[in-house]
Specification:
The complex is a heterodimer of chains A (348) and B (208). Chain A has 12 helices and 4 strands, in the order αααββαααααααββαα. Chain A is mainly α and 348 residues long. Chain A has one domain. In chain A, helix 5 packs antiparallel against helix 8 and helix 5 packs parallel to helix 12. The radius of gyration of chain A is 21 Å and the shape is globular. Chain B is of the alpha+beta class and 208 residues long. Chain B is 30% helix and 12% strand. The chains are: A mainly alpha (348), B alpha+beta (208).
Amino acid sequence: MSIIALAIIIVIKIVVILLVILGIGAYLTLVERKVAAHIQRRPGPMVVGWHGLLQPLADGIKLLTKEDILPSSADKILYNFAIIMALVPASLVFAVVPFGPEVHVLGYDIKPILTDVNIGIILAFAFGSLAVYGVALSGWASNSKYALVGALRKAGIIISYEVVITFAALGPIMLAKSLSTYDIVMAQIHQKVWYIFLQPISFVVFVFALLAETGRVPFDIQEAEAELVTGFTVEYGGMKFGLFPLVEWYVEVLSLSAILTVLYLGGWSAINIPFVGFIDPFFFLGAWSGFLWFIIKVSLLFLLILWLHWTLPRYRIDQITGIAWKVMLPLALFNILISAIIAPLLRG
Amino acid sequence: MIKKVFEKPLNLLETIFFLDFIKGLAVTFKQGVSKTITTHYPYEKLTPPKRFRGFFGHKIVDGFEPQPAFDEWVERMKIEPQKGASRCVVCYLCKKACPVPDLFEIDGKKLENGKKVVSVFNMNLMLCTFCGLCVDACPVDCLFQSDIHETASFTRRDAILDLQKLETIGKSWQQRREEEPDRIWIDDEARDVLWRENKLKLPKVDNA
């Protein structure tokens, strides 16, 4: 494969991933509003397009045409830099997410993953924890009490749960004997078992940490509409305001759901019967059924997160950090012990 | 005596398997898949109950006036009742009942045969609280409150109801809803039964 072909393939991958992620992120606002509405027994957006299908476009136009206000006592450079710091690391996580199995397109073997680095999982968590800089900087630069309190809460939560999420992910990593996301999925396919069946404790811990890192209920203490008027975004307006929830609630949730799918739900593999094999109702699609399975798994996870969001009330900040250090971290450590016992028993 | 209610702590099983979470999720799932209960407002509208206190109107002379009150008041105020026009007898009782001094502007004009008809009847609804005291005061069932409640307008002038507007509202009301039984909600049978059961039996007042 010549260098030029490689470069073209990579550029195409980057463009496709960015467009898909940001486009889907925008449309997930509509999904969220619809789910929230139906849980509260109302239909949600119905006016713009059929059942409100064009609502995200209308929202985008509205946000773009709004006046861009800079608070008079804000730090101008950090204020704008915070948006980049929030958006870029969250999108970069998708560089290590494998969307499907290797496919043949126009005579080339293409792995649908941007960079199959051998420390993919660590990279994903590193970028995930970088996202806190966006929030912390925006809180500091806004020069507002609400924003600062929200940013500090977010920082506290991320510090607690970044430890927990990494220790929870250690279980699947030990079973797969690899840090590469692509290899972890391949290991699950070879061992014929999704790691959720071997690591249920770790899965629950990971879901809790996912909710906390993305600021979803019951851990949305940094937004806390009732007491903090949505925390760190309070001084932002227009599209700058629109980007923060887009990043936090949609792009980050999508990226962490994708990582969770890779670690516990066998990535692009079909329905699994542990240690027996895989049942694929979409076998007629060939290699492309993997993409469909990946999309199905991530969307079901996203719907689960939405369902939790619109059901549960909020924890207090001390309860959240208490759960992280006193319950989740010991559970994750206990799970590592179990993994160490069962890891040698698995073949592959 | 004060009864103390303590929060029932979760047992170990409930804590491990998130049973309280699952209970809540079951509730929201059930709500999520059931039918929505909203009205799609500008396109669908609910009909207010008949006793709704909306914009005012004048009922018109159509042969169904409350008798003998109407004939008595017509005679007393020397009014010439005109078919298809307002029932108003220019008695000023609504203006007297109104807690706001400047809300009503009422005047009658003399005809050549010496009798009167109402000529000016302005209500400035910018001042109105829709308390309905004027409606209670009206002796001939002329002034009433209709079911018109979407009353936003572009000018303050639109908030002043003159005689013509009041008659229009009254005509349309008499066409649409005069025949309707006087219930709080039209189709609420259970409430109707409740009202009949609770009918108060007040002792008769002896004026003599």
